[in-house]
Structures are given as C-alpha cells and as structure tokens.
Amino acid sequence: MAARAVGKPLPHDSAHLHVSGTAAYTDDLPEPRDLLHVAVGMSTVAHARVRNVDLSAVRAAKGVVDVCTAADIPGENNYGSIVKDDPLLADGLVQYVGQPLFAVAAESVEAARKAALLATVDYEELEAILDPLTAVKKQSFVLPSETLVRGDPDAALAAAPHRLRRRIAHGGQDQFYLEGHIAMALPQEDGGILVYSSTQHPDEVQGIVAHATQRQAKDIVVICRRMGGAFGGKESQAALIGCLAAIVADKTGRPCKLRLDRDDDMIMTGKRHDFVIDYDVGFDDDGRIAGIDFEFAARCGMSADLSGPVNDRAMFHCDNAYFLENVRILSHRCKTNTVSSTAFRGFGGPQGMFAIESVIDDIARTLGKDPLSVRRANFYGKKERNVTHYQQVIEDNVIDDIFDQLLASSDYEQRRKEIRAFNAGSKVLKRGIAITPVKFGISFTSTLLNQAGALVHLYKDGTVLLNHGGTEMGQGLYVKVAQVVADELGITMDRVLTTAADTSKVPNASATAASSGSDMNGKAAQKAAAKIRKRITEFAAREYGVSEAEIDFRDNVAHIADRIMDFPELVRLAWANRVSLSATGYYRTPKINYDRTTFSGRPFYYYAYGAAVTEVVVDTLTGENRVLRTDILHDCGDSLNPAIDLGQVEGGYVQGVGWLTSEELWWNDKGELGTHAPSTYKIPTCSDLAPDFRVAFLQNANREKSIYRSKAVGEPPLMLGLSAFFALRDAIADGDRPLPDLHAPATPEAILRGMRIAADE
Amino acid sequence: MSMNTIRFVLNGNIVETEVADPTRTVLQFLRDDLRMTGTKEGCAEGDCGACTVVVVEVDRRGGGVELKTINSCIQFLPTLDGKELLTVEGLHGKDGGLHPVQQAMVDQHGSQCGFCTPGFVMSLYALYRTNPDPSRQEIDDALAGNLCRCTGYRPIIAAARSMYDASDDWDAQQHLDVLHEVQRQGDLELEVGRRRFFAPRGVAAFAALYAKHPDATILAGGTDIGLWVTKQHRELETVIYTGRVEELLELHTADSHLEIGGAVSIAAAAAAIVEQYPGLDELFRRFASPPIRNAGTLGGNVANGSPIGDSMPALMVLGASLVLRRGEKEREVGLDDFYHDYQVNDLQPGEFVARIRVPRARAGVRVASHKWSKRFDQDISAVCTAYSLELDGDTVARFRMACGGMAATVRHAERCEAAVNGAHWSEATIDRACAALAEDFTPISDMRASADIRLVAVQNLLRRFWLESRGEVDETVYTYGR
Questions:
Q1: Do residues A475 and A622 share a domain?
Q2: Which CATH superfamily hosts domain B5-89+172-241?
Q3: Which of A680, B32, B284, B379 could form a disulfide with A675 if both were Cys (CB 3.0 to 4.6 A apart)?
C-alpha cells in the first residue's frame, strides 16, 4: 500500500479543538451530581515523626464532608511502582515538606483547600538530609549504589599524559506542564471505580487504585483523553492523585475530584534529579580520553520512585556520542528529605550527557583547543571503537555525518573566528558558540515494558475508531498512529478517530514514556488494522474471484482487480457476510535483551541522533545572557509526521535550554521549596527564543524495522539544549578564566559567581 | 434587577448575574458557574497566561473601544460591571468557523498539548486587533505573559505573523453600542451577608466610603489582592474598587510634571513616563506582563510598597511625590519619605494614593534603570536599580540612585549618592561608589538571588550605568543582535 497520510505534515488531531477551547481536559469534563472536591493537607516539615494530627478544625470547616487519613485506606498505602516506599498518605512519619498527610473532601474546591490548612500537627522533628552530598556522606540511599566498569580505568588514568579532576553540578527541573495534576473518581455499580486521570500511565493508576481500595483490576477503569503536558511528571506521580480521589470517592460513595493548585503541585510532586558529578579523566594531547572515573550523586528525594531506571539511564548516557574505552561509573541514588525525584523527558540521559560534555569541554579548555576537535577525537567509530561501555554494538552511528552537515550549514568555523574578534573588542558583552551532539538510546531499559497493544474497530460505514495504550500529552502521538492506521486501511484521515486511552479497551499498557509512544503503539495499531485489512481482502478475493494480490485499498476506494468500489460499500458487504471488523494488535520491540545485574547487553533497539550549534551573548557585568542563534540537525529517521516531529525538536531544545539557564529549583535550609510557582520558577518565554532559529532533519531512514523506518523523537531533542550551556561557558572562558566554574542552571547569579571563582583562583 | 446584580457583555451578549461572592474570580465564574471551560487555570496567580481573556471598554479618551488582555484567574467578577469580556468561545471567523488567529495557530502547528492555547489565542487576538504589523519584539512583548511548555514558541511566533493574512468581521460600533447599554450610571454596591463590594464613580464618594470603612481592602488591578483570595484563601469583608473612580483614572501632563491618577493602569502610566524618559522603556517592557500591566495600577504598585516593586526605584530618582487623600483632605508626600519599613508606609487609616506626581524630563539629565532577574519577561526583580545623573562638565552636579531588592523597602543608596555627588564622574569615583554600596545595603538571600551576588550585581549595574553614560557600552544582551 502507498503511504498517503504517513510522512505528511498534518496538524495535531486536536489542533482545531485546542484553538477554540473545545478540547476537553479532565477538569473540563461535565461534573457529576454530588461531586466532592478534594484537597490535600501537607507536611510542613522535612523529616519528623508525627505524634498527632488534630483534624477537628478541618472536619468542622464550612462545606467539609469527610477527611481521609492513612487509617482510612482500605488496602495498600503505597504508590511506589517499583519499590514500595511511597505512602499515599503519611503514616506516622513525614519525609519531605509537602508530603500528603490527609485528604479533605468538601462541597467546593475553595472550601476543601481552605479546610486543608486547618490541621494542627504535632511533629517530633528528625534530622533532615537536604542535599545529595550530605546523603553520600551519611550513606543515605534509596537504592544501593551501582558501579559499571569497562576496561581498566585506573591503569589508563595513571598512564595518561594529562589528568583532570573536577566537580560539576546541575540543577533539577520542574516539568511545569501547564495543566496541573488532576483526577476525578466516580463510584460505579458493584464496587467499581471509574477514574478520569491526567496520566501518562493509566494502567499503573488502575493497578495502584485497585490495591489501595482492595479491588481487582477488573473493577477499576482509568481513562485519559489528553493531558495538558506531562513531560514525565505524570508517569508515576499521577497515581498519587488518582488514588487519593478514588479513596475518598470509595469512602464517601460520591464522585470526587482532586485538582492540585499549582503551588501544591510543584511542592508535592516530583521533578528531574539534580546531580553532583565528580570526575577524574586522563587524556592525550589531542584530548582523546584514555580513562575516566565518574562518581554521580543524584538527589532522589525521599523514595525510590523511578530513580533506579533514571540513574541507570544516566550511567548509559554518560558516553553520549563518545567511546569510553576505560571507564568506571559509580552511581549513588541519594535519599534526601525532599520530594521524590521522578521522570522528566530524557530520564537520566540529560544528566549523563551533561557529565561527559562538561568533561570534554574542560579537556578542550585545558588544552587550549576548540571543544569541537576534542569532541570529534572522541566520537564512536563506525567499524571500530563502536561498542558501548554496556556492551551494545552501535550499528547506526551517524554522528560524524551530522556534524559534517551541521558545521557547514551553520558556518561554525567562520562564526567562531568572528566571535573571537568581537570578544577581543568588546568590554562587557561576550559571545560564545558551541556544538554538542546527542546520541540517545531508544527503548525502556526494563525490557518487559517494551510491549504495546491496540484496538481497531471498523464500522459498517467505513470509518475507524482507533484505540491504543498510548496517551496523548501534546506530543502528537494520536495523529501519528492514526496516520499509520489510515494508510494501512487505505482510508483518509477524516475517517479515523482516536479515542481516549482507556484501561478497559487496551489492557496492561506501558507508560507513554521513553520516547516509545509512536514506535510501539504505531506498530500495534498497524498490526490490528492489518488483520482487518487481511480479512476484508480475503473476503473480496472470494467474493469476486480474484487473487488477494489484485486487491488494494486507497483513498476510501477498494480496487478489486478491475472493479472499483467505495471502501464503505465493501466493508458493509463484508459485514453482511459475517466478517469480523474489529481486531487487536500487539507489538513487542525486537532484538533487545539486557542483564541489569551486569549492566550489559542490548538495552536499546536503536539510537536517535542529533546535534545543535548555539551562539549566545553574555553580559559579563550582570551575568545576563541570551541565545542569539540556534542551528539544529536532528535524526527522526523517516518522519511519520514532519510537522509534529519539528515541534518535538524545537520544543525539546527550548526546554533543555530552560533547564540549563533560567529554571532554578531553590530549597531553603528547612527543606522548603522556594520556587513553587511560575512567579518564582522561570521557564523560557517567547522572547527567549533565538531570533535566528534553524532546524533541519537528517535524511536517514532507521536501519531497524521501526514503524515506517521512523525514529523516536520525544526525548532526544531536549539534550540539544546542552549546546547553549557550553556556548555560555565559551563566552565567559577567556585568557584569564580558561575553566569557568559554571554550574547549571546558568542564571545571571551562577555566571557572576562562576566568573568570580575563576578570577579568584 | 436586584441590588446585587452586575451587568456586563460576554462575547456580545448582555449578562446579568447576581453576585453571591464578591471576590469570585472571573475564571471561576466562567468555568464553574457558566461551565465555559475554554479558558484554563494554569497557576491562579497571573503568571502563566492560560486564563487570558480580553476586556473591551469604552476608551476614556477617544470614545471608541479599547481592548486589553487580563488574567481572569485573579480578576474579581464585579470589576467586569459595565465592560465586555471576550473569551476564546466568542471568537469566530467570517464564515462562523475559526477566527484568523485560531486558523493561523492551526496552520503553523502552534499548539501541542493545547492547554496554554486559549490564552495565547486571546493574547494574539488582542495583538491582531491593536497592531496591524507587529515586529518580533512587539510579538514577544504581547506574548510575554503567556507560557508554553511544549512548542518552544517558534510556531506561535509564526502564527502571530501569518494571522493577518485573513480579516475578520469586527465591528467596533457594535461593541460600543452594547457597552453603552450596560453602562451603570450610579455607584455599584454589593452586599452579601457581611461582605460588601463598593465601586463608586467619584473620588469624593470613594474617599467618604474609605473614611467610613478604614478597614476595607482597596482593590485596584487585583494583581496582588487576587492572590490573597486564590492562594491564601482570605475572605475579604469590605472591598472598595478604584477602577470606576473617574478622577483616579485621569492622567494629564502639567507644566512641571505628570499627574497620574491612583487608578491609572501601569500600561497607561508607563507610556506617559517612557515618553518623558525613554531610558525607562526596557524597565516597563519587563514590568510583569501585558495582562498584569493592563490590570495593575501604578498607584497600587506604589501603595503596596513591595521591596521588589519595579516602579519605585525609577520614581524615586525622578523625585516623584504622592498626593494622599483622606476624606476631604489631601497632602503631598515625597516618595522618598513614604516608606518607613517592610510593608509599613505613611498612609493613615482611610487614606489612599489619589495621584502620583512625576516631574517632567529636563535636558541634561540622564535617567536609566536596570532590572536584574533570571528571565527577561514577567519576572520579579532580584535587584532593580534606577539612576539619574546631571553633570556639570566632568563633575557630578546631582546623582541619585535607588534600589529594589536590596533592603526591606525600595530606597536610595545614600552613601553611594554621597560618594558620587560633587565628585568627578570617573572610574575612581565609581570604585568609591561601589564600595559605598556595600555599606548602603545588607541584602538577604532568597530564591531570587544570594546576598553576596546581589551586592556584586548592584555594584556591576552601577558600573554598567557609568559605561553607558560614557558611550562605552550601548547594547545589552536584550538588544544585541535583535
């Protein structure tokens, strides 16, 4: 069949609804009669035994109907998906400021939120660990530290002509989805509970609600039509919100909605892990790394949550695009009395890449070289130097090609010279430029998660209702998968409708995460559609006495040898002849296998690549800075939808730049987060976008048999933002300050501090 | 019509509604009462723009209509009385389909998750209506109060450029007619149980009401008071709204100064001030966001007296004064003498800021301001400085510098001023002035900046002003390459 929808830059399937305000998010759904609104009472201390919670004033408050504490949870008081260390409601011990203590249900949102502030809690305060380094010192970990070694790093370090040891750090990042966490739970007949949840993982919400309410999975239905952004923040965290709504609904017998206020959302739910990175690197005169020893200390917060796989991915990505022949990585998963860190676009990848790119930049500045040459000296080879430190052979390396093309199209060399000349003559403003690569492994590192299901119904009028386990958070998954199904059945896009992710339609679905949404759900949906297509084709062959090879469906028309007939007509005929027009599809990612105990194998089906050149200007008096120009070349394989993929690349890059420049999480010495609203937490705005912003795609079909040879594009572009950070370093590194002590985010303060420390040295 | 009924126009239709809660926000009214869910809540503090709507009013000067974006999440419903509210549900194209702004957003792939989109559409709509050919900077400025986490903004900028390809069927007269229909002649008084909301039309009535209810909350743009309700869940008993008081909305240019009514919006006040002092253009462009500047008032910013309020450093170096009124009595106080301590000012019970007097520009005086924060747009200053400088040859005839973010109130850098006044305008003087700044201020550390770097920043900003005055630096990172 010919690809007619696939590959086209079609708009997001909900674009016309978004712009007219008619796309319904969870809070926009019609509210059932008797709906109660839930608010959460939170811990005000970072670490304490709870001696007593006096809720009398909460219960007595106007409009309050009921209050739930840990004692009211019928089943398991936990929403930790891997390790069971995440209580839904604190039970005798609080471990961070903002930890949920109780849920109050009232007749209005305002009444519930007001009442939630009225509890009197008697705390016996315990020592709080508020940063990863203290945690390492005290051996406070949520999970055991892990070590990955390849080669003989000690010998390589000892023998290397140059050696550099440094400590670098980067901050965390709030997802800042525009739609905060929300869920609405509705009691159903015979003990069932229906939960509308803004979640990337309906299956997990279903399972955890079932455990918490002592139900079975069959009794719980979780539905999510769309999220107003998620970025990983609604992968594990949504279960907390869904469960609290369900528990209160179960107890009161009334529908309950829990919509977190923005500040509470930012205080209560997890963010990207911040890392402190110590490295010891040995290298030669060209900057080629002989051996490297990394020690990562990650803030995991008070529980394990997804910190295991996040930190594993950081370990897998601290090579980025570079061959590390002799390497040791020691990864600490630090337990701190702060909110549990969680998934965020990149999922450890950005942290790992930040580490190695910092090393490369430092080596270059130590040797007085353009970091570009050090990058190239260390790139993976295509035939040799092509095995990762976790033993995966890289078969699809295109990073040299990307660099060649991007260096030329961005005019890098010429601009770098021009920037040097400008800086020599400019007293206050300094410019900088950097090119950084991205190589990002595609697949969940946990092999079992790499499976997906879909359900396709073909109706008698030739239209299709499509459902799959993937959730729509803005990334355009629904339109991409619909394009695949439309082409598989030879119908036009207007005849395909994708409905809400729904655990009662497609069971046991993995989270829409790890950039895997289109790869896996696209394949599963294609298989479902192919089954139906085959049945109709077989029917038509029988009916008209032609071979199946003579039958084709395109543009809503069936071509049956010389006969042409409207596809709906054929479908109706097939139905009348009792052909099943509904099918499920199932897909498991091939080739992957990986042994977590040895950190070796092939965790990734393939890699997605990209590179960015960013030029910045910095005010050396104020530390203020701006991106002047961005050039990106990114590998989406054969794109399913270039418009959607472009949006992912552009948005991911800007989000990455935000992480490394203006987005700062700030906790005080009591463990209170000071930056818990957009007034204090600053994501990029419109004017932060470079006035000159150029994005192109690499022409590069996926060598693996992914859906239409496309490549995953959700996470990789975020790490293109690293180029902005290293351009800032380039701008402030000069003769007197070859190695600026710049940590991320590079706020004006961080830049001033970095320049002062370097100057004082 | 019951006494507690307000009237306004919603997307062309007159709405009469009984107010049960005088501090119910416009957003709550739309979403919860009318179930018009197109407008979104992202933060409930006026900082993300998901709730952006457009208010149409009779233009006080021209008699036409005036369109402004506001944040519906922190605007109280009774403030809409006599105005028109446009929401995303009210937009449509000539054929009844999508409006050109909406269509451009679809065509340019300007939405991903779509949650911020209605807010962007309304900001773009206001731009479409008010500026036929915006530059990139004007687009950025118009969208400064709208956060998008998905797109990175490039396609939204593209939509802002291509939306003019189609026209709509806007008819200003139609809006004017219906606005006239809902104009209230007298004062608005709402009384719900113990709670009252007054919106008088004349300053005498306003003054009398406040004298009678000195514990009342004076509501202007509500850009701070809105948060008392949405975030602190405070129940305000008596509220007196400045937004309908004729005299407080006046702005005129006298021979020696600008006379800015206490309820004049920051947007309108900024335009008049920047006309006098072009050096303050960037400060006011960076002052919050368009919806906040449209709703918020200069009088409110000054009376609120936050140590990080952005207007006060500039007003102080300009020698602004306040005309305060209580009952029938007025008095004038210099802004320099207005702030006593953290959130303590010179206002007596029942007294309010009636007018702000800003001296007009004089030749030979250089006035500038620097705002230092993590982000260019819509950020709260970590440090905000302002300077005025008058030279007599190489000697400083008069130098003034005031800082926000460095102490419990915005105030002058007195030792620094003393070090500069009468001295040579030279690097040596600036070195001494920088040392004096360290004696002037003992800043604190918080989420916006650390104490030590705040001091470094304020010293470097002064150095920057010196370099700028000598023409050694003429660009900032915000102008360079743009």
A1: no
A2: Beta-grasp domain (3.10.20.30)
A3: A680
Options A615, A715, A749, A761, the catalytic residue = A715
Same domain? A246 vs A279: no
Q: How far apart are CA A348 and CA A252, in angstroms?
A: 41
d(CA A2, CA A487) in angstroms, rounded, equals 7
Statement to judge: residues A468 and A431 lie in one domain: no
From the candidates A18, A175, A630, A692, which should be mutated to test the interface with B, based on the most B CB atoms within 10 A? Answer: A18
Per 3-state DSSP, chain A is made up of helix, strand and coil in percentages (nearest 5) of 35, 25, 40
Identify all chain A residues contacting B460, using CB atoms and an 8 Å cutoff. Answer: 621-622, 752
Neighbours of A152 (CB within 10 A): 15
The number of distinct structural domains making up chain A is: 3
Mutation site for A-interface testing, chosen from B95, B107, B109, B116 by largest number of A Cβ within 10 Å:
B109
Chain B CA closest to residue A666:
B447
**Minimal CA separation from A319 to chain B, in Å:** 27
Please tell me whether residues A459 and A538 are part of one structural domain.
Answer: yes
pLDDT in tens, chain B (482 residues): 568 999 999 999 999 999 999 999 999 999 999 999 999 999 999 999 999 999 999 998 888 999 999 999 999 999 999 999 999 999 999 999 999 999 999 999 999 999 999 999 999 999 999 999 999 999 999 999 999 999 999 999 999 999 999 999 999 999 999 999 999 989 999 999 999 999 999 999 999 999 999 999 999 999 999 999 999 999 999 999 999 999 999 999 999 999 999 999 999 999 999 999 999 999 999 999 999 999 999 999 999 999 999 999 999 999 999 999 999 999 999 999 999 999 999 999 999 999 999 999 999 999 999 999 999 999 999 999 999 999 999 999 999 999 999 999 999 999 999 999 999 999 999 999 999 999 999 999 999 999 999 999 999 999 999 999 999 999 999 999 98
Q: Is 1.10.150.120 the CATH classification of the domain at B94-165?
A: yes
Structural domain of residue A253, as residue ranges? 33-127+175-268
Contact call for residues B302 and B159 (beta carbons, < 8 A)? no
**How many residues appear in chain A?**
761
- pLDDT digits 0-9 by tens, B50-76: 999 999 999 988 889 999 999 999 999
Burial of residue B396, with CB atoms counted within 10 A of its CB: 0-12 exposed, 13-18 middle, 19 or more buried: buried
Residues 6+ apart with CB under 8 A from B62: none
Is the residue at A511 inside a domain?
Answer: yes
Find out whether A10 and A479 touch, Cβ atoms under 8 Å.
yes
Does residue A615 sit in the same domain as residue A562?
A: no
- Answer whether B112 sits within 8 Å of A12, measured CB to CB: yes
Distances (CA, A) of A47 to A122, A307, A516: 12, 20, 37
pTM score, whole prediction: 0.98
Query: Known catalytic residue: A179?
Result: no
Chain A residue at shortest CA distance from B473: A428
Phi and psi, residue A497, nearest 5°: -120, 130
A contacts of B448 (beta carbons < 8 Å):
680
Domain finish residue from A268, A298, A318: A268
Q: Give every CB contact of residue A235 below 8 A, 6+ residues apart in sequence.
A: A200, A201, A306, A342, A343, A511, A513
- Please compute, for residue B278, the number of CA atoms within 13 A of its CA located in the half-sphere on the CB side: 1
Q: Regarding the domain with residue range B250-469, which homologous superfamily does it belong to in the CATH classification?
A: CO dehydrogenase flavoprotein, C-terminal domain (3.30.390.50)
Tell me whether residue A79 is in a domain. yes
| CA separation for the pair B227, B233 (Å, rounded) | 8
| B109 to A644: CB separation less than 8 angstroms, yes or no | yes
A229 contacts in B (CB within 8 Å)? 112-113, 115, 149-150
Residue with structure tokens 């008819």? B171
CATH code for the domain of A479:
3.30.365.10
